Automatic annotation (TrEMBL):
Pfam family, one: HATPase_c
SMART domains linked to this entry: GAF (SM00065), HATPase_c (SM00387), HisKA (SM00388)
Protein name listed in UniProt: histidine kinase
Entry-linked InterPro entries: GAF, GAF-like_dom_sf, HATPase_C_sf, HATPase_dom, His_kinase_dom, HisK_dim/P_dom, HisK_dim/P_sf, PAS-like_dom_sf
Catalytic activity: ATP + protein L-histidine = ADP + protein N-phospho-L-histidine
Domain of life: Bacteria
Chain intervals with Polar residues compositional bias: 11-20
Entry keywords, A to Z: Kinase, Phosphoprotein, Transferase
Segments of this protein annotated with the region Disordered: 1-32
PROSITE patterns: HIS_KIN
GO MF entries: phosphorelay sensor kinase activity
Domain Histidine kinase intervals: 344-566
Enzyme Commission no: 2.7.13.3
């Protein structure tokens, strides 16, 4: 005979050792199992010997034949605050361990994500030898918690007011989360994808909030110490990259174990939760900008379809807002750059005009005065004036050419006429053109080009590139020697322009190849900030690349690498360089 150490139990026949479960020592509360009562009887071996339809309804599972380690398949026992309960603390496990669980309230998360609040009584059932042979669990459903009404239109209207102007967009994200917390969840996160420029991608927590002050601090600590990763295999971050809706009914111990990087990470996850979470993509114009995530510390409130629908709508509006704010920022930046450029361009165009018009006026006066006196204008005076005029006109047309080039490049109209050329000869020719100006400035120009380096390029554009680099080396070279080197590396031609001037700060090295970008003050050096931009565009049109290395204060070296194009194989071998130069 087995005895159930129970209150109020009768009428359930146990197949265990043909025993009949009796009321035990206490007086029965009821003489029959009520309709609404779920009854489960499990042997120590895990065999289920009773599981009525009410129990199946309470736990939301089909009648199991076997239960491993007192765990009802697909169900999780949780505490009142929604945190998962260790499996050994469940009523069934306690009863199997010989403990009596008396009509107390328990919370269960069912496989479909819904929750049940059950009044449970669990008793050990002992065999004739006094050992626990089975456990009997009786369950009664408690009235469901009232479901809060979601006032979506009010929340969306408030969000609309917040997301009005695109200025300071990110500062509005935390107030946006305040609309959701605690109305829809105990916590909320807004995570943005940030391409790092090298093709990879990182995630950035743009705003985070938890209704509970202690958990708010823990959440921030968790996110700072263990920032979300786009490559996280499972769990909430899965939605970041895919743009799918992510839903987690319960962050169980298994999830924590799978996601945690170390013990500290696991501790923070357990303490913060989330015990339930819903994440929706921030999608705008076909792009997924990130994720909006609601966290629940109390899984008794499961996220429903209505909340998912609302959150998706809000995320879409937020994404459009962020996207518009980005476009607005970019447009303002473009206008600022244009205004700054117009200022510099007018100054640059004016600079040669002043000496030019002075010279012309002076010459005009002299011609008039001399003519009145019936004298001839001395030829050398005219020649000297015309020299100045010609220099300034050349400078002006150079500036205008640069402007035209930029508009050609922007419109994609940079046309190249490829022909076979020797880069070493082109470099020599350009240095020759600069020789007079360099001599005047006392700057030494050197060429290191031991062999011809032949390839297929556009002559005028190639000359323009070399001219830009050499003129910069003279301009920023502080009068120190400038050396141009040309060599071949198999199918690549390499040209370097080395100076020993002011140099370039590391942060500016990449920027100076962009349009209008300059790394010097316009009070000290003239220029439009277009030369290197045009250079890069031409070099890239040749399929090559241009870069710079520099130590500020010690000079800069610009390196040009150009594919030699479709040229006969014997040319490459005939003029092949002995190998990479020293130091490479
Ligand atoms: P610009 O010389 O007209 O300003 P560029 O596009 O030719 O425009 O150059 C962009 C910027 O790069 C310059 O303003 C200068 O700050 C920097 N730079 C270019 N060449 C050198 C060099 N050889 N040494 C130091 N700085 C340089």
């Amino acid at each position: 005979m087995m005895r159930a150490e129970s209150l109020g139990m009768s009428g359930v026949t146990s197949p265990v050792s043909n025993a009949r479960v009796t009321d035990g020592d206490s007086p029965p509360q009821s003489t029959r199992v009520m309709d609404a009562e779920g009854v489960v009887l499990v042997e120590c071996t895990g065999r289920v010997t009773a599981f009525n339809s009410q129990a199946a309804a309470h736990f939301g599972i089909p009648v199991p034949l076997h239960i491993e380690h007192a765990r009802l398949p697909g169900c999780e026992w949780v505490r009142e605050d929604g945190t998962p309960l260790p499996p050994r603390d469940s009523p069934l496990a306690r009863a199997l361990a010989g403990e009596l669980v008396d009509a107390s309230l328990w919370h269960v998360l069912r496989p479909d994500g819904t929750r049940a609040e059950l009044r449970c009584t669990a008793v050990p059932v002992r065999g004739g030898d006094g050992q626990v042979a089975a456990a009997l669990l009786r369950t009664h459903a408690v009235d469901a918690l009232p479901v809060p009404v979601l006032d979506a239109s009010r929340l969306l209207a408030e969000a609309g007011a917040l997301l009005g102007t695109p200025v300071d967009a990110e500062a509005r994200l935390e107030p946006l989360l305040q609309l959701l917390v605690p109305a829809l969840g105990e916590g909320a996160l807004l995570i943005l994808r940030t391409p790092d420029g090298a093709g990879a991608e990182a995630l950035r927590v743009a705003a985070s909030l938890h209704a509970d002050a202690g958990r708010h601090t823990l959440l921030r600590e968790l996110l700072t110490r263990y920032p979300p990763e786009p490559s996280a295999p499972d769990g909430p971050p899965g939605a970041f990259a895919s743009g799918a809706v992510g839903r987690l009914s319960l962050l169980s111990e298994e999830h924590v174990a799978a996601l945690a990087k170390d013990a500290e990470h696991a501790r923070l996850m357990r303490e913060v939760g989330p015990h339930g979470c819903l994440s929706v993509p921030l999608g705008a114009r076909g792009n997924v900008l990130g994720t909006l995530m609601l966290l629940r510390s109390n899984v008794m409130r499961v996220f429903g379809a209505e909340e998912e629908h609302f959150l998706t709508e809000l995320a879409h509006r937020t994404a459009l807002y962020l996207e518009n704010a980005r476009l607005y920022r970019e447009a303002r930046e473009a206008v600022r750059q244009r205004d700054e450029f117009l200022g510099i361009a007018s100054h640059e165009l004016k600079t040669p005009l002043t000496p030019l018009s002075l010279k012309v006026q002076l010459l005009q006066k002299q011609v008039v005065v001399l003519a009145r006196e019936g004298k001839e204008v001395p030829t050398e005076r005219v020649a000297e004036a015309l020299d100045v005029v010609q220099r300034q006109v050349r400078r002006l047309s150079g500036l205008v050419d640069n402007l035209l080039d930029v508009s050609r490049i922007t419109a994609g109209r940079l046309r190249l006429e490829m022909e076979e050329l020797d880069l070493a000869s082109v470099a020599a020719e350009i240095l020759y053109r600069f020789s007079a100006a360099a001599a005047q400035a006392g700057t030494e120009l050197g060429l290191e080009a031991p062999v011809p380096v032949v390839g297929r390029w556009d002559r005028l554009r190639l000359e323009q590139v070399v001219t830009n680099l050499v003129s910069n080396a003279l301009k920023y070279g502080a009068g120190q020697p400038v050396v141009v080197g040309v060599e071949a590396h198999g199918s690549l031609a390499r040209l370097t322009v080395r100076d020993h001037g002011i140099g370039i700060a590391p942060d500016d090295l990449a920027r100076i190849f962009e349009r209008f970008e300059r790394a010097v003050s316009d009070r000290h050096y003239g220029g439009l900030g277009l030369g290197l931009y045009i250079t890069r565009q031409i070099v890239e049109a040749f399929g090559g690349k241009v870069s710079a290395v520099s130590t500020p204060g010690e000079g800069a070296t610009f390196i040009l690498e150009l594919p030699r194009g479709d040229i006969p194989e014997e040319w490459i071998s005939a003029h092949a360089a002995p190998g990479p130069t020293q130091g490479e």
